[in-house]
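Here is a typical sample entry:
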Amino acid sequence: MLTDRSSSSQATYSGVPVYECIIKDVAVMRRRSDSWLNATQILKVVGLDKPQRTRVLEREIQKGIHEKVQGGYGKYQGTWIPLDIAIELAERYNIQALLAPITTYVPSATDSPPPAPKHTISTSNRSKKVLSADAGALGRSRRATSIETESEAIGATQNNASEGSMSPSPSDISSSSRTPSPMPADRAHGPYAAQQAAAAHHNGREATNQARYADIILDYFVTENTTVPSLLINPPPDFNPDMSIDDDEHTALHWACAMGRIRVVKLLLSAGADIFRVNTNQQTALMRATMFSNNYDLRKFPELFELLHRSILNIDRNDRTVFHHVVDLALSRGKPHAARYYMETMINRLADYGDQLADILNFQDDEGETPLTMAARARSKRLVRLLLEHGADPKIRNKEGKNAEDYIIEDERFRSSPSRTGPAGIELGADGLPVLPTASLHTSEAGQRTAGRAVTLMSNLLHSLADSYDSEIHTADKKLTQAHGLLKQIQTEIEDSAKVAEGLHHEAEGADDERKRVDSLQLALKHGINKRTRDDLERRWAEGKQAIKRARLQAGLEPGALSSSSAANQPDGTTAGDAEHEAKKSLDALPEGKDVKTAIAELKTQLGEVQKKRSELVDTFVSRAREQGTGKTMAAYRRLIAAGCGGIAPDEV
């Protein structure tokens, strides 16, 4: 076995002492407490990318004894496995020789590896700047946590520098252990060991769930799948929205903001995501959003900024604010339109806080750069003008001793020269591109000077045209946004109208049947009235005939005779003679020239007119009865009114 201590060093991460060895630019760690190794780091040495490492860990490593660690110091995160399993993994990928310095290392009883070089920190490091006494509190709290953690790591390394035994003391055992580590029987006794094993098992299960959640979320962002994972819509009880999902300690909120997924951002915030959570470079989700042009392409940045604007005062590891990152998008990534869109959105939102905004805009990073000096270096006149209008100081100098005015003057001088020399001694044209060697068009100094002025004028005109084009595009974008809003409103109204029409259609489906039923009931009512009237007339006619017949019998008259002088008194007090006298009197009352037949014909005509009028009255009654309704509800109302009016018949109501 190797015992060369120069190839290994010792360090402490998240309070856990480890042996560390740099192999192919990867820090491979071995815990001093139980000799477990970080399988994630071993797979990095193999050269596998993130998806490949995830598949190997899920299919091969995590099926056996392992420990998943998330949170804490970034380099300590990963899947930890016992030493013998780590050696088998190295042999499987033919890197056992590369890992030999860490896997075969046996510490002596008198000394141990030296501290890792990266932990030798000079005490003369400059103190970090903050935006203001209250404005920088957020960034300062993050930075202080990082510094304290690193200081603890240094202290732990120095305290353990003289230890050489692989057997840990109780204080050396990492409190972040998630699953029981294989340990000798003499150290696994007692109630403390049982409690520690139970807690480790519970934590290991929880860590496994978090790792699964992280993989699901990361796969959603790196693939073309547009379906939001269900765990973001309905988060499980153990879901931690602030967990890291990649090697740079980015959270799901960092990814969602960078990609312009506003819906996912809102879901994460509703689940309790922290907008002040930072990655390894101390960058917030708002900073990550401005480092890419996705929110510009989707025109989602105003809505996103409303959700994240409280983190605008944070600074990253390089003392850069979000305004530095916006300008850097134009300077380093060649996205001036996106940078201007982000800058205008933030400045317009903060325009009411002029003094505080000016303090943020004039904040310098660790190179002394302000957003204005960076904008001047990027040659973005729109950004420079926007920053100057809101309090940016053009006289602040960076570590090179230059301020924004110097860069602006250099740019004007560069633009005014028809040809100039680049950094490599190559002649550049007005457009900044190399000039091909051609014969001089003008031999006189006056001609060359005139041509130079013409080129400068043409360049200014082109820049003016470009600015005009940008302005028109901005106006067109506003109109397009308004048109989209109007279209959405119209579509909503159409959908509401369609729902109402559909409801009315369903209600009207039985209208034809109801109409037929009403017509049938109307006809039945009319026939019933006519029948009842006819029956009544027939009944009265029969009763009259019977009365006449009885009168004749009582008077002793022969059938057909009108009277008899010897007739007895009639039951009603009249005699047959009286009846005959009345009949003669009626005949005598007839006008001259009229006989009985003519009178009967006139009476028939009058009877027909009365019958016609009666038929019309019946039709009117039926029509009104139809309009008023004769259903169960009306019948109930009639009964109620009849009872309230002293017991009258419901038909009379």
